[in-house]
């Protein structure tokens, strides 16, 4: 029995022991199950990030309780580490979590590709890998994830095409690959995903047609394919997707018409089709979409009238139809859109009366109908816009007065009415919320009332280009928040009030008025003023010493007044000054040495005064200077060697967006001695004018001035060769060396030395030899004056068609007979060969020169006979030759005097003499109209406005250059007109834009617009070379940009990756921003572009960007470059700046100067990476 009891006791103990062993064994099995093994392996890969996931490395915490881990028993089902900064390559150990159903690794800083074994997680139902830096292709074995319901890969660098095997994932409800680098055509197999509710393909490089199989996705509620390269038509079967609530196909290259089938999508709340190549009318069926809240059709090529049915979309809050070519008026029935908050229709082609019914849109906050042809007065009904915050109605044809009822807009912050036909006086602005009021370029009149300041929040007031009269003695005294006051181009008079210096003004623009008296000392006491322009008034007295107090001043323009006395030495205290212009006054004395303490000066213009003395050598301190005008003074002595200490290729500070041209003008002074050899160091100079001095010696080496377009050394005492071999300047347009003592011959290779030469004037020198025939082969040459030299021999035969307008070879020793080839001078207007030794008969072909207006063959040895072909010549009727000979001497003297006077009165007068009267052609509707006999009076054009000489195009030139406006020559088409590539006869290529009717109205508006644009010169703005007017038609002539518009490269070029690498794209971004900043801040008056988009950023052959002066888009940050080391952060930085620019609150958006500064910081980062 004892034994039995002992055995029982041992048996119980043995059983307990076995149970403990079994339990321990079970626990061990549970800990090391496959799921747990994978989890521990994952932890091993995270060892260096213990600080991010401390629980994972705490021995007291069970694995199923680790952060982001979810288990069922010992099986790991969920891993959610989203937003944990893991910053490591994608861990392969995740592939071991075979039971995983939910995986979220978004925003973890993961890099590299996904291992093939990863796609073996066949139990996955939800996968989110968004916002990482993952790359590589999606493999075909993606199809193994048959249980997958959600696949989110947004914000990575995945590339390649979507595999067709994706069609096997029949359980998918959400598929999102936003912002990657996927490309190629969409697989038709996407149509098998019939449970799909959300499909986001946006911001990739997909191309080709949208597959028609997508019509099978009848469960789809969200479809976003914006910012891709899709082409072709929108598939008609899209009408089957009746469950769609959001559809975004914007920013592609879709063509064809908007399908009426969209009207079947009755659940749609957002429809975005903008920025495509869609055409035709808006289908009235869109009026069926009664749930629609957002409709965006901007920047397509839509035509026809806006359908009345749109007014039935009473839930609409956002409507954007801007930048299209609609016809007709704005539907009055739009007043029924009672929920509308944003109505954007700038440049939509609208005309007719302004509909007062819009006033019934009581929720409307933003109204933009600018750049249309709306006419008539502002209707009283608009007073009902009780919620309005922003009104943009500029560049229309609105007439009548500015209504007093605008004060009923109690919440409005911005009102822009510029460039219309408004008349009458300005009403009181009793609007407390108003920040900006712009009614510039109208015909407003009367006196400015102090009631303007009833708008206590007013910061910007622009009333330039009107007819306001009277003084402003107390007008703005109560405008305590005013920062920008722009009143230029009116008829204001009286004194400039001192209280302006006590306001918070940053910009004060009072130029082109009738202000008189002294500049008050109080003005200079301002602590905020950065820009003062008082030019073209009647100001008198001295520049006060108190100017030193304006320490914040950057730009000061006092041109064309009656200021006298010396420039005060205290001006040297303006250490922030970048632009100083005192041109056209009566200032005396020497340049104060203290002026050169303003070392930030970029532009200095002291021309047309009575200044004396020498140019101080301390000008060497102005290292940023690249525009210096000292002309028409009484300076003397030698030109210092330090004159080119500026004019170098140095980066300007972000704040120095000043108007400058690369001009060095020392003309019409009393400088003597040789031209300094250092002149060759003025690298960025574009115009060098030294005429009208007493300079001697020879022409120095200047081949280093590769940017030079004008060289004028006339009326000096220069000797030596006129055209030495080193004078090779490929961009030179004007070479004027007349009235010197130069010698030598004309090189036979002039066309190679100066292929862009337009004007060559070497008259009144001592050159000899013969005229090389190659001179007449120069395609750009229009003015040739070799008179009063010692040229001899036969006058050359004209071998090819020449485009010379003025030819003067008088007072030489030419002999022999003239060739019949004179008919090749088909454009010739002035021909002067008098006082030579020419013999024989006048060539009969002279009668073919139909443009000839002046001819002088006197003092030669011609036979006294008139060719028979002259008898019926239009230009030379019978007897005209005799009359010309009799009057030639007097007329020649008169012509020379006239030309000399024009040359002295404005630069490049000789260049323009043959051109200014010919700029009157514009593209009409037909060839007959263009070449018809109904010639209209040309506009009076201030050609001195332009940096370059105006391009001369006759009506026949335009037709020939564009092949009668052939569609094959069209290189651009937008809301403002059609742009043609023009292949000119002389071989140059220009871009000719035909403006649509209605955007620039009468002659006054057109000339004002062109004079403004013509003055805008900046490296990142497309230069305007000319403009032509014929009747109601207008042409603009621009530089041709070889690489076209940026949008083509971003969306339609297969080689964009290679051509537009990240540094190139960033440079385009930065330089475009500089161009816009210049318009906003550096040009006076300031210019708002109003049409910034990638199609208005043009690229030259070196991909240098230039804005079309009438920025940046997310397109510049292509996800292709995110895979490159260091690029992603830079791109995200730039995107962050772009987001700041699109802040819903305009007051929180940075200025363009601030944008350039921010981008400059990114540039430093890029340069740091390259180091």
Which tags fit this structure?
1171 residues; alpha/beta; 34-stranded mixed beta sheet; eight-stranded parallel beta sheet; 13 helices; 71 strands; 14% helix; globular; disordered N terminus
Question: What's the layout of helices and strands?
Answer:
Elements: H1 2-31, H2 34-45, E1 69-72, E2 75-80, E3 102-104, E4 111-112, E5 126-128, E6 133-136, E7 150-152, E8 157-160, E9 174-176, E10 181-184, E11 198-200, E12 205-208, E13 222-224, E14 229-230, E15 246-248, E16 270-272, E17 279-280, E18 294-296, E19 301-302, E20 318-320, E21 342-344, E22 351-353, E23 366-368, E24 373-376, E25 390-392, E26 397-398, E27 414-416, E28 423-424, E29 436-438, E30 443-447, E31 460-462, E32 467-470, E33 484-486, E34 491-494, E35 507-509, E36 514-517, E37 531-533, E38 538-539, E39 555-557, E40 564-566, E41 579-581, E42 586-589, E43 603-605, E44 610-613, E45 627-629, E46 634-637, E47 663-665, E48 670-674, E49 687-689, E50 694-697, E51 710-712, E52 717-721, E53 734-736, E54 741-743, H3 750-753, E55 759-761, E56 768-769, E57 783-785, E58 790-794, E59 806-808, E60 813-816, E61 830-832, E62 837-840, E63 854-856, E64 861-862, H4 880-905, H5 909-913, H6 927-931, H7 955-961, E65 970-974, E66 977-983, E67 989-995, H8 1003-1015, E68 1024-1030, E69 1033-1039, H9 1046-1051, H10 1056-1059, H11 1062-1082, ...
Parallel strand pairs: 2-3, 3-5, 4-6, 5-7, 6-8, 7-9, 8-10, 9-11, 10-12, 11-13, 12-14, 13-15, 15-16, 16-18, 17-19, 18-20, 20-21, 21-23, 22-24, 23-25, 24-26, 25-27, 27-29, 28-30, 29-31, 30-32, 31-33, 32-34, 33-35, 34-36, 35-37, 36-38, 37-39, 39-41, 40-42, 41-43, 42-44, 43-45, 44-46, 45-47, ...
Antiparallel strand pairs: 1-2, 65-66, 66-67, 67-69, 68-69, 70-71
């Amino acid at each position: 029995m004892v034994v039995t009891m002992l055995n029982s006791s041992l048996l119980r103990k043995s059983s307990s022991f076995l149970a403990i062993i079994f339990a321990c064994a079970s626990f061990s099995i549970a800990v090391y199950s496959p799921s747990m093994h994978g989890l521990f392996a994952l932890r091993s890969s995270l060892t260096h990030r213990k600080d991010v996931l401390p629980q994972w490395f705490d021995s007291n915490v069970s694995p199923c309780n680790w952060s982001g881990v979810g288990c069922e028993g010992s099986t790991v089902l969920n891993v959610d580490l989203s937003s944990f900064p893991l910053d490591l390559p994608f861990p392969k150990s995740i592939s071991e979590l075979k039971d995983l159903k939910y995986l979220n690794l978004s925003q973890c800083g993961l890099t590299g590709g996904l291992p093939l074994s990863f796609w073996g997680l066949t139990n996955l139902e939800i996968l989110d890998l968004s916002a990482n830096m993952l790359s590589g292709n999606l493999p075909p074995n993606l199809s193994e994830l048959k249980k997958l319901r959600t696949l989110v890969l947004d914000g990575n660098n995945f590339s390649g095409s979507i595999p067709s095997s994706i069609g096997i994932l029949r359980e998918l409800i959400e598929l999102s690959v936003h912002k990657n680098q996927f490309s190629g055509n969409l697989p038709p197999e996407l149509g098998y995903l019939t449970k799909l509710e959300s499909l986001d393909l946006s911001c990739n490089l997909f191309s080709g047609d949208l597959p028609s199989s997508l019509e099978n996705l009848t469960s789809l509620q969200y479809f976003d394919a914006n910012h891709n390269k899709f082409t072709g038509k929108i598939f008609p079967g899209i009408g089957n997707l009746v469950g769609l609530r959001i559809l975004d196909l914007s920013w592609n290259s879709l063509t064809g018409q908007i399908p009426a089938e969209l009207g079947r999508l009755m659940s749609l709340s957002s429809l975005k089709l903008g920025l495509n190549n869609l055409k035709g009318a808006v289908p009235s069926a869109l009026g069926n979409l009664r749930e629609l809240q957002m409709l965006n059709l901007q920047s397509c090529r839509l035509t026809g009238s806006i359908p009345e049915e749109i007014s039935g979309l009473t839930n609409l809050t956002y409507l954007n139809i801007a930048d299209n070519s609609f016809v007709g008026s704005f539907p009055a029935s739009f007043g029924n859109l009672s929920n509308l908050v944003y109505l954007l229709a700038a440049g939509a082609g609208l005309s007719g009366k302004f509909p007062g019914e819009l006033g019934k849109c009581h929720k409307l906050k933003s109204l933009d109908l600018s750049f249309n042809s709306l006419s008539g007065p502002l209707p009283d009904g608009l007073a009902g816009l009780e919620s309005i915050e922003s009104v943009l109605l500029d560049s229309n044809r609105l007439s009548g007065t500015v209504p007093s009822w605008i004060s009923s807009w109690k919440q409005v912050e911005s009102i822009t009415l510029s460039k219309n036909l408004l008349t009458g006086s300005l009403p009181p602005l009793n609007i407390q919320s108003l920040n900006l009021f712009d009614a510039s370029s109208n015909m407003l009149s009367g006196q400015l009332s102090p009631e303007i300041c009833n708008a206590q929040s007013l910061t910007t007031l622009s009333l330039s280009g009107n007819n306001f009269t009277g003084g402003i003695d107390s007008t703005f005294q109560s405008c305590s928040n005013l920062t920008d006051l722009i009143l230029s181009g009116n008829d204001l008079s009286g004194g400039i009030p001192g209280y302006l210096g006590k306001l918070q003004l940053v910009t004060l623009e009072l130029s082109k008025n009738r202000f008189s008296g002294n500049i008050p000392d109080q003005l200079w006491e301002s602590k905020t003023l950065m820009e003062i322009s008082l030019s073209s008034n009647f100001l008198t007295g001295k520049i006060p010493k108190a100017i030193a107090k304006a320490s914040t001043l950057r730009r000061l323009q006092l041109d064309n007044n009656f200021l006298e006395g010396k420039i005060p030495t205290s001006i040297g205290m303006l250490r922030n000054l970048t632009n100083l212009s005192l041109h056209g006054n009566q200032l005396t004395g020497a340049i104060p040495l203290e002026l050169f303490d303003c070392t930030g000066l970029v532009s200095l213009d002291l021309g047309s005064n009575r200044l004396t003395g020498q140019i101080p050598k301390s000008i060497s301190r102005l290292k940023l200077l690249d525009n210096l005008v000292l002309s028409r003074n009484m300076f003397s002595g030698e030109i210092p060697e330090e004159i080119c200490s500026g004019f170098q290729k140095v980066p300007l500070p972000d704040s120095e967006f000043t108007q400058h041209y690369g001009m060095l003008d020392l003309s019409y002074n009393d400088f003597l001695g040789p031209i300094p050899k250092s002149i060759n160091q003025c690298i960025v100079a574009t115009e060098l004018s030294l005429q009208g001095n007493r300079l001697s010696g020879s022409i120095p080496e200047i081949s280093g001035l590769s940017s030079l377009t004008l060289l004028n050394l006339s009326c000096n005492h220069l000797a030596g060769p006129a055209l030495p071999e080193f004078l090779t300047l490929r961009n030179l347009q004007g070479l004027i060396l007349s009235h010197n003592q130069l010698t030598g011959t004309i090189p036979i290779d002039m066309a190679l030395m100066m292929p862009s030469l337009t004007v060559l004037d070497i008259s009144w020198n001592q050159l000899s030899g013969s005229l090389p025939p190659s001179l007449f082969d120069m395609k750009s040459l229009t003015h040739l004056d070799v008179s009063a030299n010692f040229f001899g021999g036969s006058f050359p035969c004209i071998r090819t068609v020449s485009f010379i307008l003025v030819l003067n070879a008088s007072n030489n020793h030419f002999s022999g007979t003239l060739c019949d080839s004179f008919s090749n001078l088909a454009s010739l207007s002035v021909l002067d060969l008098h006082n030579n030794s020419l013999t024989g008969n006048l060539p009969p072909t002279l009668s073919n020169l139909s443009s000839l207006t002046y001819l002088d063959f006197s003092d030669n040895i011609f036979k006294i006979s008139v060719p028979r072909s002259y008898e019926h010549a239009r230009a030379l009727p019978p007897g005209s030759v005799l009359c010309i000979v009799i009057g030639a001497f007097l007329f020649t003297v008169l012509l020379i005097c006239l030309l000399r006077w024009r040359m002295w009165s404005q630069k490049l007068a000789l260049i323009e003499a043959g051109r200014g009267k010919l700029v009157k052609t514009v593209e009409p509707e037909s060839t007959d109209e263009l070449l018809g006999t109904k010639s209209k009076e040309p506009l009076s054009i201030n050609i001195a406005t332009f940096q370059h000489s105006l391009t001369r195009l006759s009506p026949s030139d335009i037709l020939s250059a564009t092949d009668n406006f052939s569609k094959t020559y069209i290189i651009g088409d937008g809301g403002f007109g059609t742009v043609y590539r023009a292949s000119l006869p002389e071989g140059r290529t220009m871009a000719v834009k035909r403006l649509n009717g209605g955007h620039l109205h009468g002659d006054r508006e057109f000339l004002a617009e062109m004079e403004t644009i013509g003055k805008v010169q900046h490296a990142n703005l497309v230069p305007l070379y000319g403009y032509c007017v014929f009747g109601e038609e207008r042409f603009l002539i621009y530089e041709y940009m070889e690489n076209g518009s940026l949008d083509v490269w971003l969306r339609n070029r297969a080689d964009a990756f290679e051509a537009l690498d990240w540094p190139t794209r960033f440079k385009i971004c930065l330089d475009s921003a500089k161009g816009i900043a210049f318009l906003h801040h550096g040009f006076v008056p300031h210019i708002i572009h109003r049409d910034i988009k990638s199609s208005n950023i043009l690229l030259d052959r070196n991909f240098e960007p230039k804005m079309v002066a009438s920025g940046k888009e997310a397109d510049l940050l292509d996800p292709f470059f995110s895979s490159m080391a260091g690029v992603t952060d830079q791109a995200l930085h730039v995107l962050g700046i772009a987001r700041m620019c699109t802040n819903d609150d305009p007051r929180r958006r940075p200025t363009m100067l601030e944008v350039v500064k921010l981008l400059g910081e990114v540039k430093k980062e890029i340069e740091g990476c390259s180091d």
